[in-house]
Write a structure and sequence with these properties.
Blueprint: H1 11-35, H2 39-42, E1 47-52, E2 58-61, H3 68-72, H4 75-82, E3 93-96, E4 109-118, E5 121-131, E6 153-157, E7 160-161, H5 163-171, H6 176-204, H7 206-229, E8 234-244, E9 247-260, E10 263-267, H8 283-298, E11 312-315, H9 333-348, E12 364-371, E13 378-385, H10 413-419, E14 422-429, E15 445-451, E16 456-461, E17 482-485, E18 490-491, E19 496-499, E20 505-508, H11 523-531, H12 537-542
Parallel strand pairs: 10-11
Antiparallel strand pairs: 1-2, 1-5, 3-4, 3-6, 4-5, 6-7, 8-9, 9-10, 12-13, 12-16, 14-15, 15-20, 16-19, 17-20, 18-19
């Protein structure tokens, strides 16, 4: 059986090549995690990998961090715009992180990009991205305060490290020994991707791989359009307040979605102007949020390539918080991104309520930094923490988890205490933090730490401190996030402080919203929640109506 619309390549061959491409990016991601030095990459797995065609379109992406799609969307195209392709050689590797020059969506995400040569010509590109926990204690009024901006530049030429470029990058890092070792892991992941892709070309031929890649993108487009057709035509909108410790004012965000036959239009008119804070999103970050929502709603098995994007249209005011222009700061762009994802899902709940969860947690970030008393080197602990997922039509929300675009793991207590001069004093779920409902929202978590043998700067913050995650269909909102600073802490700003050795600081994250009337919750489930300490006696009686 030949693949639809193509002569010469059968369906089985295309499927085999598609599976091979997916396997390559998954192997790249696993190699990066296993070779990484910092806990943020090897434990939290805050990294991704992808393969691009010769024009810079994604043909395969590892299923790791959805937000990283935005960081990878433009890197190859931007490199092709900047570089004379005739000067490229096998072993050239580009590094980049700048949100306004195709490299990333915030400066901590650093991309390694490498062309794949076969038969003397470029046949594809491989890339990986990793979040580097560096650039702490910096301002966020504009991007120049957030760290070193790196447009796509050659870090390796013909396989030879450009030491002057590496020295420039490391000089601007606060934990350079971590960076250089994580960079080596990123290089290893790319080399694996290059070798695997070249082996695929040897087996099937360059032209067959290129043709199959085009056909896989067409297949993704067909699957996307088929999924969109299952959503009733119409215009669906949602508006909600957004708060975060990064900004004093409550901001109003808005989204409208129009479904017409087999295409979607997303309109973010009404979102506020970009701010003098790290909340702003570049357009590629907005694209990543939209693509994530569509993929989760129509068919999670649709291959993550550029063909999937074709039926999706996005408009957002230039210079707004969701489509910022330089030099707007972008470090905490995930705060707005996570809230927009929930809002898009809420808009779709008007059309397909059975596929949409209630509002979910945001991302609470904790950073502790100081001089390690054992090594004498500057040390940075940085972790983004999830909370409660929103409840669904027939299921409770998941407790203590990253949701939506972040999808990263936690740092295990043993790894945290062995790599950082810190003690984990508490790590627990928060009673009554999940929004009540026929199905309960997921519970938030508390992570309390204290420095050991040194004074540490603590930075804590995130969204949903004043405006909780909403419930659906009569469900109640989730619990609010908050910061707990130990006695004697001297505040430096709205979210910073100095901890002496042994003093504690804690992040309490936000809970997910409930789904349905709490009085309709199965009595046995209410009793079990009460017995397990998930809810208090008061909530069981007054909200759930337990006798």
């Amino acid at each position: 059986m030949l693949w639809p619309g193509n002569a010469g390549i059968d369906s089985i061959t295309v499927e085999v090549i598609g599976s091979a491409l997916s396997t390559i990016v998954d192997q790249m991601g696993k190699a990066l995690i296993r070779a990484a030095y910092s806990a943020n990459i090897k434990e939290r797995r805050d990294c991704s990998a992808a393969i691009f065609d010769t024009e810079g379109y994604i043909i395969a992406q590892a299923q790791q961090i959805p937000f990283h799609l935005g960081s990878l969307l433009d890197i190859t195209k931007e490199t092709l715009r900047r570089v004379d392709i005739s000067t490229l050689r096998e072993g050239d590797v580009f590094i980049g992180n700048d949100a306004y020059n195709g490299g990333s969506t915030h400066l901590n995400d650093i991309v390694f990009l490498e062309p794949v040569f076969q038969g003397g010509r470029i046949v594809a590109w491989v890339a990986n991205i990793a979040h580097h926990s560096d650039f702490v204690d910096r301002g966020h009024a504009h991007i120049f305060q957030e760290g070193l901006r790196i447009p796509p530049v050659r870090l390796y030429r013909s396989g030879e490290l450009q030491q002057d470029v590496m020295d420039l990058v490391l000089l601007n890092c606060q934990v350079p020994h971590e960076r250089i070792n994580d960079f080596r892991a990123q290089m290893a992941a790319n080399r694996l991707g290059v070798q695997r892709y070249q082996a695929l070309c040897v087996r099937y031929g360059i032209d067959t791989i290129a043709t199959a890649s085009d056909m896989l993108m067409d297949y993704s487009e067909r699957k996307a359009r088929a999924g969109i057709r299952r959503i009733p035509d119409g215009r669906y909108s949602f508006q909600h307040d957004f708060d975060t410790s990064l900004w004093p004012d409550i901001l109003s965000l808005a989204v409208a979605v129009e479904v017409r036959d087999d295409e979607l239009w997303f309109d973010f008119e009404g979102c506020p102007p970009q701010t003098r804070s790290g909340l702003n999103m570049v357009f590629t970050m907005l694209q990543a949020c939209v693509y994530y929502v569509v993929k989760t709603l129509i068919d999670a098995d649709t291959p993550a390539n550029a063909g999937f994007h074709r039926p999706i249209h996005i408009s957002a005011p230039l210079g707004s918080i969701v489509n910022s222009v330089a030099p707007a700061a972008v470090y905490s762009r995930h705060d707005v991104g996570q809230r927009l994802i929930d809002m898009m899902l809420a808009a779709f709940s008007q059309a397909i309520p059975d596929r949409v969860p209630a509002g979910s947690t945001g991302v609470t970030v904790m950073t502790m930094s100081g001089v390690h008393p054992g090594t004498g080197r500057f040390n940075v602990y940085n972790e983004s923490m999830g909370g409660g997922m929103g409840a669904r039509l027939t299921l409770d929300g998941v407790d203590g988890i990253h949701v939506h675009g972040t999808n990263s793991a936690n740092i295990p207590v043993e790894a945290l205490e062995s790599e950082h001069p810190l003690t984990v004093d508490a790590y627990e779920l928060i009673q009554d933090s999940g929004g009540a409902g026929k199905f309960r929202g997921g519970m938030a978590i508390r992570r309390r730490l204290s420095p050991v043998g040194h004074e540490a700067t603590v930075n804590l913050g995130g969204p949903l401190n004043r405006v909780p995650a909403w419930g659906l269909d009569g469900g109640l909102p989730g619990g609010l996030a908050r910061i707990e600073l130990g006695e004697g802490v001297r505040p430096l700003s709205g979210r910073n402080g100095i901890l002496a050795a042994g003093q504690m600081a804690a992040a309490v994250t936000s809970g997910g919203g409930g789904f349905g009337n709490p009085k309709e919750r199965d009595r046995e489930l209410v009793r079990r929640d009460l017995q397990e300490g998930r809810i208090s006696d008061k909530v069981a009686r007054e909200i759930y109506g337990l006798d």
